[in-house]
Amino acid sequence: xxxxxxxxxxxxxxxxxxxxxxxxxxxxxxxxxxxxxxxxxxxxxxxxxxxxxxxxxxxxxxxxxxxxxxxxxxxxxxxxxxxxxxxxxxxxxxxxxxxxxxxxxxxxxxxxxxxxxxxxxxxxxxxxxxxxxxxxxxxxxxxxxxxxxxxxxxxxxxxxxxxxxxxxxxxxxxxxxxxxxxxxxxxxxxxxxxxxxxxxxxxxxxxxxxxxxxxxxxxxxxxxxxxxxxxxxxxxxxxxxxxxxxxxxxxxxxxxxxxxxxxxxxxxxxxxxxxxxxxxxxxxxxxxxxxxxxxxxxxxxxxxxxxxxxxxxxxxxxxxxxxxxxxxxxxxxxxxxxxxxxxxxxxxxxxxxxxxxxxxxxxxxxxxxxxxxxxxxxxxxxxxxxxxxxxxxxxxxxxxxxxxxxxxxxxxxxxxxxxxxxxxxxxxxxx
Length: 431
Known about the structure:
Elements lengths: L4 H33 L1 H4 L46 E5 L33 E5 L9 H7 L4 E6 L1 H14 L6 E5 L6 E5 L4 E7 L4 E4 L12 E8 L1 H4 L7 E4 L9 E5 L2 E6 L11 H17 L6 E5 L32 H23 L3 E5 L2 H5 L37 H13 L1
Parallel strand pairs: 3-6, 3-9, 8-10, 9-12, 12-13
Antiparallel strand pairs: 1-2, 4-5, 5-6, 7-8, 10-11
């Protein structure tokens, strides 16, 4: 058998030409496909003939803040957004309303259950908080519970903390109803457990954060001055502190009450104590001392969890205060600048911010994760969010002109306080 070398050479050339043609076609098809799928390149070509060429230089600049559409929940999650001030923003219309109701959540305390108590308007339920410069995702109860698997939270402070824990529980109960597993004798400190996630939420009653003997009933009527020990932390929360993964610590308004101050087990002065032969030191003295001691404890604690310190909240009493006829008749949010913070609220906040700043530097050196929750301005614009006369059940059922006590300090649930949880979850996720 003879081997035809010329024939083999010709076939080889033909095969090579065919392979080359196929390769060119495939390469062209791939390149064209790439063009259609790339918006960045497509904008740079004037025609299919590629009349001009453009080579994009690498971008070494930091990412810029992306303007968000009104329906920000639809923004793709892969967009890079700078961190922003979550506490500066506006209340915008929220037609969908709250994710729970007073009927779907049994954990709302009577005084904050405005709908059940007969509040006739519902507009206050249809606003949501939106920071001005960035995206704030809505609170995702299921995601939060997954993040908190095998964790322990505590909200430590006064009745505003109790108000907040009810808001958080109501939002989480849209996924799973928690079981109350503990309460103290007066039902002021409580703990709940989410069984599917082995997650606990505690409300720890400690209105001063330091040791205090309080002689006051549930309506705020006192029979004697508070005995306040400014140099002894309240063991109600410090004993549990090491076992907590997350906590929100706050205080504030209780320091405005009449009190006798102790240091080193000795009376050193007071606030509003005529006839006691004690030096009038004023509440600012006690607040400074207390917060310095609390913050120093936290900053030096070596705690490995996440600790939030929350500023005190503003009230909206008009034409009086809690016990002398003050009211809060507004039914819509205020715009920025329309409502000014009261002097007492401003003084408390100034002390809080000063002591937090001093502690934050020390906490950072000790690797303690201490963050600030400054909801003052967020709530300052919500004079419509309080129970007002509807802190009690059907106050005008028998007499439409009845004179009743108004609550312009706590917050209706559902209500503005629910959006604290949006901000907190975002801070938790960011780390």
